[in-house]
Design a protein that fits this description.
Elements lengths: L1 E12 L2 E13 L4 E5 L6 H8 L7 E6 L2 E2 L5 H11 E5 L10 H12 L4 H11 L15 H13 L5 E5 L7 H16 L3 E5 L3 H4 L4 E6 L2 E5 L1
Parallel strand pairs: 3-8, 3-9, 6-7, 7-8
Antiparallel strand pairs: 1-2, 1-4, 4-5, 9-10
Helix pairs in contact: 3-4, 3-5, 4-5, 5-6
Length: 220
Amino acid sequence: MIELNNLAKVYRAGRTEIPALRGISCRIEAGEMISITGPSGSGKSTLMNILGCLDKPTSGRYLLEEIEVSKLNDNELAEIRNKKIGFVFQSFNLLSRNTALANVELPLIYSGSSNRRQRALQALESVGLAHRASHKPSELAGGEQQRVAIARALINNPSLILADEPTGNLDTQTSKEIMLLFQQLNQQGITIVLVTHEPDIAAYTQRTIKIRDGQIEGDV
């Protein structure tokens, strides 16, 4: 699914170079569920942005399903994001004026897909929220909002879901429910990579990659 070879990312502020990633190499097989952990400033968010085709490495190679993503242009990266990757964020990123159904439909509108309403309802049903389709985010609990965000991530049938601190704004019981949902999705064959700083959340995954100072410190 994913192969990283000596991946590096350097940010520049004037004449100062700030290395965020220092030669990351690893493989993530299709169907795995893994967590990426590390202290603040370790480079895990930078790595997640590169995996999600939201940023490009300074050097090194990134292959996603045998496509060398690190050489693609912006339009090609956008197509990869739309067709192969679903994103879930800590802050849910839902539009407050839209219903749950309309929020889930958004990626389909951008891609010009048909049968949007039916597909969005099916996605909400897959996360147990079809009965809340007409509610706006302010009318939903935190866990329900995250389920809407997960349904939106699933709408284009991605092979990879990237989740950045998906339980960061949730209480312990709701976090457990969301992680069990991720496990169910993984059992359906979706590869899941999540960033977390919480060991109890990482424990739900099959493998943990630990990053410190832009390098892999452990992979268990």
